[in-house]
């Protein structure tokens, strides 16, 4: 069942392996195969890390620490999670405040945000998608999610109405406590996911029905990570999106949950470093 249909039923008003052509598919167990090439001269690009729904910037801590240790400036802004247009505009403004080249990474819904936010920004040298949505212009996330079976997110959704300042009502989407770990972060310890569930940031339901207005991957080189045991965005959808986008390099991590950037920060970091080496 789609998320939209699920919400309507709750009476809230809310509108394997694939050969990737032109991309190097890297065995996840061979982390060392993702070579780290240091730039021969000049400053390193700023890496901007954009989280998705039910998360916040702290989820990138393992990746950010490794990048900082290697000399990369890092920014992990708070994605507002208020809808595609709103969030993309905000992240776009963050990008414009940064001088020099940028490597832009997005997880999950953050992939949709960076796809829109990077459009027309000449400083963005690479897009790195981590178990992410990679929509084309005019596409909805709900349409992409229904393209392949396997997502446990619709059944895990807990819709909660909220009031806005102008008196209208919206719907925030949370993940149910008993579904959070299995649908979102199954390869992390329960002690960790209990805290993540308690602190989850909701995503507005309207965002699933808001179209992408620009697709920066048509003009900016992209790189991707497939989470092999993802129960949120099916791995088959991730492979399809990366192939369609002509992703230059793909690493697949068998057994990784949707939050592969948390459970496998080293592999995620090396993919970002690879993106830098390939586009400098």
Short description:
With 280 residues, this protein is of the alpha/beta class. The chain is 32% helix and 18% strand. The chain is built from 11 helices and 10 strands.
What does this structure look like?
This protein is of the alpha/beta class and 280 residues long. The protein has a 7-stranded parallel beta sheet, with helices on both faces. It has a 3-stranded antiparallel beta sheet with strand order 6-7-8. The chain is built from 11 helices and 10 strands. It starts with a helix and ends with a helix. It has helices spanning 3-9, 61-69, 84-96, 109-117, 141-145, 153-156, 180-184, 190-198, 235-244, 260-263, 265-279, and strands at 24-26, 46-50, 74-75, 102-107, 124-130, 157-163, 169-175, 203-204, 222-227, 249-253. The protein is globular and about 50 Å long. α2 packs across α11 and α3 packs across α4 (109-117). α2 (61-69) links the parallel β2 and β3 (74-75).
